[in-house]
Design brief:
- The protein is α+β, with helices and mostly antiparallel strands and 313 residues long.
- It is 54% helix and 6% strand.
- It contains 13 helices and 6 strands.
- Helix 7 packs antiparallel against helix 11 and helix 8 packs antiparallel against helix 10.
- 41% of the residues are buried.
């Protein structure tokens, strides 16, 4: 049983009856689920994940005080704290009075403000350009078990769709970094006798490639430690994960350097094919830098297009 399944089972056995019996007037106003940070929200938790922050619990997301007042919120916190301390062999941790960081009672507006900086999830263009993909994933990941009003669902749905001009701006910056680090600087660093710098170039290429692949899949990249697991699940370019892992985990001896460079070029070619499949580039070549600028040229909003190509990095 993973964390999401544990959370839903705990809610259905204890949380739902608590709301129905103790808060019948407010139950339909509260969104319930497991949201936010933590591998369990992505379905990535395993035996190792259970060494911290793994427990039966769920989030009770309240509307503003005009709908559910402070006293009711306080009573909800007390009722939540009194739920069984152990469930299916897992113990719950002690909660702070205001509900705790990942589980318990919180205002929906506070949750979205913490994750994306906007209580209603409505972002400015600059917020869209600057927010890490991880933050957007934490705001939209996990599962809702109940949302009768539909307000939290609507906010999450809106945040799940990055504006196309923003996607292109992010793509263009990371494509440029892929070109500079992988296609240009990797071998040059080795020729300069700088193997450590060459490995930094590989790291930069891999980091930006991961961002690009998620953007091409219209999905948000998770916290770095889950990036490869998530990458393997994507419908497009998932096999890139194997190549990137090899690039990161092998040395840069002369006999390996040429084969690694070939892998970099092969990865670049696969990315270019997908850019062309999606109509994102007009360039016809294997140079990622030219494709980066072509993607940037396709941005409709002139203000966004004219920002430095690395503005989102």
């Amino acid at each position: 049983m993973n964390g999401l399944e544990l959370s839903r089972a705990f809610y259905e056995e204890y949380g739902a009856p608590m709301l129905r019996e103790q808060f019948p007037a407010q139950a339909g106003l509260i969104a319930v689920g497991l949201l936010g940070s933590g591998s369990e929200c992505l379905g990535f938790d395993d035996e190792v994940s259970r060494d911290h922050d793994f427990e039966p619990g769920f989030c009770l997301l309240l509307p503003d005080e005009s709908v559910v007042d402070r006293r009711t919120a306080f009573l909800l916190e007390r009722a939540y704290a009194k739920l069984p301390k152990e469930f299916m062999g897992f113990r719950r941790s002690a909660l702070a009075p205001v509900g705790g960081a990942r589980h318990g009672v919180l205002r929906a507006a506070d949750f979205f403000t913490e994750k994306v900086g906007a209580p209603d999830g409505v972002l400015t263009v600059d917020q869209w350009l600057k927010l890490p993909q991880q933050a957007l994933l934490e705001a939209t990941g996990g599962q809702l078990f109940r949302d009768d009003l539909g307000e939290v669902t609507a906010i999450r749905a809106a945040l799940s769709h990055m504006p196309e001009d923003v996607r292109k701006k992010r793509l263009s910056g990371h494509l440029l970094l892929m070109a500079q680090a992988g296609q240009y600087n990797y071998l040059r660093c080795l020729k300069h006798g700088e193997p450590a710098a060459a490995q930094l170039a590989v790291n930069e290429f891999v980091k930006s490639c991961i961002e690009v692949v998620f953007l091409l899949n219209r999905a948000y990249a998770p916290y770095y430690k889950w990036s490869f697991r998530a990458l393997r699940r994507l419908p497009k370019l998932s096999l890139t994960a194997e190549t990137l892992e090899y690039l990161l985990t092998t040395g840069n001896d002369p006999e390996l350097a040429e084969s690694k460079y070939d892998m970099i070029e092969s990865t670049a070619a696969d990315v270019i094919d997908e850019l062309q499949n999606q109509g994102l580039t007009k360039a016809i070549c294997g140079d990622l830098e030219k494709h980066a600028y072509s993607v940037n040229d396709g941005i409709e909003d002139g203000d966004v297009r004219n920002l430095n190509i690395l503005y989102t990095i």
